[in-house]
Q: What sequence folds into this?
């Protein structure tokens, strides 16, 4: 039972990160109907920058801030320079271009930083507190919950309570009508990419210290888990992405805990296959299936 | 006209192919390869063998993606399946030809499972699933480390080649034998009814269904065919390297394969050949640049970056790929 509780909290902590990363995927999907397969590589790139800054300044928090800002810039840059010019008549084109970006980012990172794992320090202790003799949560887990919670609240406020959020939704939902009404649709798209990439960077900063450390391919398996979470939530729904993230996190935690860590990747694949074949619109879908 | 689909060119390409007799092309290719194996120094012959092995998988993949419109990022993992099957077989029985056939059969079976799932998925969902396959499958070697020996992988027992030829020559003959047979089979397969069905499904599923084409069957069949090609390629790579390890089949391999067929021009077997040549030539060039600069970091990553840049630029600027630049089909064996 103790072990079960520990794994539950561990799973929720992992799940929160997957939720944030899935949220980033959903943001871009809603704005541009593209699954950003470069999200993981982009997050790793900003994490490398962040840890370089943190090493140079001696402050993790400056690095953390730099990661988020770098995410904003990278996201906006990718949209402005590359994605805007992709021919969207076939959904595969965006995917292929994103995969090209993955190769570029991983190659450049490897050239600058090398292909070894670099240690990435966590800002808080990862030793779990004991509550009633049971190890449950670490300070770092609390930090993860706080950061992801803040992101979810801020995004919700942005999209439901601000004029900018309304414009972003309008631009995504009905681009032509929005343009006629004076909404800068292109600008909203750039903003959507920037926000999504920043959320992705934040998720990367949260997850990298809990894994093996910095590596150009460090986010590959995280991306798969987050993609599974986003599909579980229906790709279109931010709430679905958060719930999907938590479900995937819990499941992975139980499976790693009871069956061994090497089984976890296969479990993600199995879950993805089951979800895609049984509920391709996600568990929480309201709308009709999209074949895009 | 979309980038990943050469609809408007289908007719022209079909006509051009119809004029070429595939048997003659294959025979000419075989002559060129054999001649090259006697002319080239050992290392170049080894590279030639690698091009042949790559050609098997790029040819299969270009049929799947270019003619049938299904994007697969999982072919690196399918190659791993073929390679490991051959390694396990060889270490038990040491009979190469049946071993290669078994590798193809096993990979085909795995491909059928993925293909059955893939036929129900579209666009980013299919890409995501196959991406997951590419990332997860190499990690299976750690899960069942008693069979697959984890990250170290397995060595492949092979009989020495006949006395009259060098190891490299033998490798080149084996690989190109497989590659030319693959290309011949695919050329014959795609010009008949099956090829028409695949194009019909790619261009408009509803119209294809109305015309009596079974969409799901065509898609699964296309995936199975290309999986078989990937299995053969994997087995040939195991023969060339005489070992298999998960590190040889990373996600980037699958992305490289995609890059090769996109650059070569989707849906054309000549494009698959250009792609296969690039897959060998570009890393070699990057290696030399890296050595000249004295930087080990540069070597592998320069190729990676270059592939990425080329992939993005081609997708944005010339979606038809290099094969649309009227490079003659017979340029084999370079």
A:
């Amino acid at each position: 039972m103790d072990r079960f509780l520990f794994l539950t909290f561990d799973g929720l902590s992992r799940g929160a990160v997957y939720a944030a990363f899935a949220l980033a995927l959903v943001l871009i999907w809603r704005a541009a109907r593209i699954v950003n397969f470069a999200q993981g590589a982009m997050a790793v790139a900003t994490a490398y920058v962040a840890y370089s800054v943190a090493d140079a300044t001696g402050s993790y928090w400056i690095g953390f801030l730099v990661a988020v800002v770098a995410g904003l810039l990278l996201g906006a840059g990718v949209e402005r320079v590359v994605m805007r010019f992709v021919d969207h008549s076939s959904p595969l084109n965006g995917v292929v271009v994103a995969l090209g970006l993955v190769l570029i980012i991983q190659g450049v990172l490897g050239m600058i930083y090398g292909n070894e794992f670099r240690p990435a320090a966590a800002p808080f202790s990862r030793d779990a507190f004991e509550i009633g003799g049971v190890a449950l949560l670490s300070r770092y887990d609390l930090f993860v919950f706080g950061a992801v919670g803040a992101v979810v609240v801020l995004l919700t406020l942005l999209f439901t309570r601000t004029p900018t959020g309304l414009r972003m939704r309008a631009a995504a939902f009905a681009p032509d009508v929005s343009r006629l009404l004076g909404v800068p649709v292109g600008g909203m798209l750039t903003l959507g990419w920037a926000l999504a990439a920043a959320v992705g960077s934040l998720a990367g900063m949260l997850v990298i210290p809990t894994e093996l450390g910095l590596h150009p391919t460090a986010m590959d398996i995280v991306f798969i888990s987050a993609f599974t979470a986003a599909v579980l939530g229906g790709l279109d729904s931010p709430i679905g992405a958060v719930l999907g993230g938590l479900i995937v996190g819990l499941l992975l935690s139980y499976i790693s805990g009871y069956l061994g860590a090497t089984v976890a990747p296969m479990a993600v694949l199995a879950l993805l296959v089951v979800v895609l074949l049984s509920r391709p619109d996600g568990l929480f879908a309201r709308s009709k299936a999209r074949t895009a | 006209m979309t980038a990943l689909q050469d609809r408007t060119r289908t007719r022209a390409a079909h006509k051009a192919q119809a004029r070429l007799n595939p048997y003659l092309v294959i025979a000419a290719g075989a002559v060129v390869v054999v001649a090259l194996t006697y002319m080239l120094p050992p290392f170049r012959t080894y590279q030639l063998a690698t091009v042949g092995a790559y050609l098997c998988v790029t040819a299969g993949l270009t049929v799947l993606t270019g003619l049938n419109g299904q994007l697969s990022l999982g072919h690196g993992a399918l190659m791993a399946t073929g390679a490991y099957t051959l390694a396990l077989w060889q270490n038990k029985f040491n009979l190469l030809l049946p071993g290669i056939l078994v590798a193809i059969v096993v990979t085909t079976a795995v491909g059928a499972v993925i293909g059955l799932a893939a036929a129900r998925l579209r666009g980013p969902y299919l890409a995501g699933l196959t991406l997951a396959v590419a990332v997860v499958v190499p990690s299976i070697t750690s899960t069942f480390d008693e069979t697959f020996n984890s990250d170290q992988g397995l060595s492949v027992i092979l009989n020495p080649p006949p006395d009259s030829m060098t190891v490299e020559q033998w490798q080149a003959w084996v690989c190109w034998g497989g590659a030319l047979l693959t290309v011949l089979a695919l050329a014959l397969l795609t010009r008949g009814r099956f090829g028409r069905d695949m194009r019909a499904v790619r261009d408009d599923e509803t119209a294809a269904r109305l015309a009596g084409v079974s969409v799901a069957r065509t898609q699964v069949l296309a995936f199975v065919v290309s999986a078989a090609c990937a299995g053969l390629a994997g087995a040939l790579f195991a023969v060339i390297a005489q070992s298999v390890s998960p590190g040889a089949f990373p996600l980037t391999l699958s992305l490289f394969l995609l890059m090769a067929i996109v650059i070569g021009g989707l849906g054309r077997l000549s494009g698959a050949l250009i792609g296969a040549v690039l897959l060998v030539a570009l890393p070699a060039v990057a290696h030399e640049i890296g050595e000249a600069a004295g930087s080990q970091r540069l070597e592998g990553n320069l190729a990676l970056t270059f592939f990425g840049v080329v992939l993005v630029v081609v997708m944005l600027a010339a979606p038809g790929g290099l094969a649309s630049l009227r490079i003659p089909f017979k340029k084999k064996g370079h």
Chain B has a mean pLDDT of 85. The beta strands of chain B are 154-155, 243-244.
